[in-house]
Amino acid sequence: MTDAHVRVFDTTLRDGEQAAGINLNKEEKLQIALQLAKMKTDIIEAGFPAASPGDFEAVKLIAQQVEGPIIAGLARTRREDILAAAEAVKWSKKPRIHTFIATSPIHMEFKLKMSPEQVLAEVRQAVTYARSLVDDVEFSAEDASRSDPAFLGEVFRTAVECGATTLNIPDTVGYSTPDEFGEFVREVIEATGNPVGVIWSVHCHNDLGLAVANSLAAVRAGVRQVECTVNGLGERAGNASMEEIVMGLRTRKDRFGCQTAIDTTRLCAVSSQVSRMTGFPVPPNKAIVGANAFAHEAGIHQHGVLCNKATYEIMNPEDVGAPGSRLVLGKHSGKHAFKQRVEAMGFTLSEEKLKEAMTLFKTLCDRKEIVTADDLEAMINNEILSLDESRRITLKSFLVQVGSGHGSATVTIEDEGREKTDAAAGNGPVDAAYRAIRRIVGVEPELENYSIQSVNESSDAIGEARVTLDLGGVRVNGRGASTDVIEASIKAYIDGINRLFAAQARIAGQESQAAEEARKAV
Ligand code: KIV
Ligand code: ZN
Fold this sequence. Notes:
The chain is of the alpha/beta class and 522 residues long.
């Protein structure tokens, strides 16, 4: 590894998953991690194992099944967090514990209620303990950019003395500006005494839209690990976007003199998969992976590009894997060719799931004249990967009747092994079906958002429905796909309700853990 190698630390599955409304199941997280491994991501932060049993299991599964990258688990400085992270990542050939504590005056006083000396003591015990469990320990000073650089120097020196090998400087609240952050990073490295053998890292949030710019400024200041997420997902306005950092470093190698190991031709595929799974659409004008990122509309631009692409294109669309022809296989395609195509799209399916996907594909071929890669991707994401074993309810059948301005629906659902049917009337067939489902399951979530979109331009394309549901402040996104828009809408609602149940169980687990801790503390 040369000093010009910038390590890509992807936290889509941890910080990205913290974004309001994102709830990925274990199978979805594994698929994303496998994609990240294929594109040669250096480190995957697979989750926060102490947060819930579900998070723990997902990190463990990824550590067991994903080879190549370092697999990191996040932990507060508490011993039980560090132990949970160690237990979850130990299955990887390259396990890392990533522990953190806040160092800014505001966080120490109001959130932690700790003095700087107490924080230092926490860093000492946490890093020492983590290092007794794994060889690779990263330490982050949360809210570093609003911390005193001299204090940070002391904190980071302590972390290094206790065995941390990666030191992370987060701009947790996305407050910094590029020139300021670059100078700050230099100052902190200096205040720490420029320790040898340590990798400096940054983790920038996007509250002012500066996360990528700040990360790149930090690379110029000497950091060799950037923490980022696919499509810039993350808390609030998100994190620095992986695709923008990677292509920024690559396209402007003349400025940075560094590179990542990322196979950039996979950027569009991973972006599309993450967008489909999270229900967070990619805006058309999003840099690198947006549908318009390489589209030239104005006549004068088109003319320029026809004469010489470099007049208006600073990157080649092929270098980021921008979708070209999306035609897929036909009805008579064999299993082998199908598997190859599915893998080229970024999926890694077990034999069993591949068989399910093949059956789905054949059914689609009967329903549609041409099956495109978009159709297939939508069906695999919505019909195979979103249905993990933790789901409680499944759609068995439905019947709708439509009149102008009203509709009625009869829906049958399997709820924990028992079939239940109910009927309702509504403003239209979808509204009626949603009412019937609510009657069956006995919960009344707010429908905050509903959309249906065709995955491509053909009139018989798959319709992908998305819903956002809120139940007592717990928000989730559900999705469903079908050649029939009503069926897609019903599936999305059912998926949302399953995710609500899962989120409620997760929260209940966290609450009982907190109550147990409070009881022990008394
Ligand atoms: O934003 C932040 O500071 C974090 C840390 C846990 C690295 O996510
Ligand atoms: Zn963060």
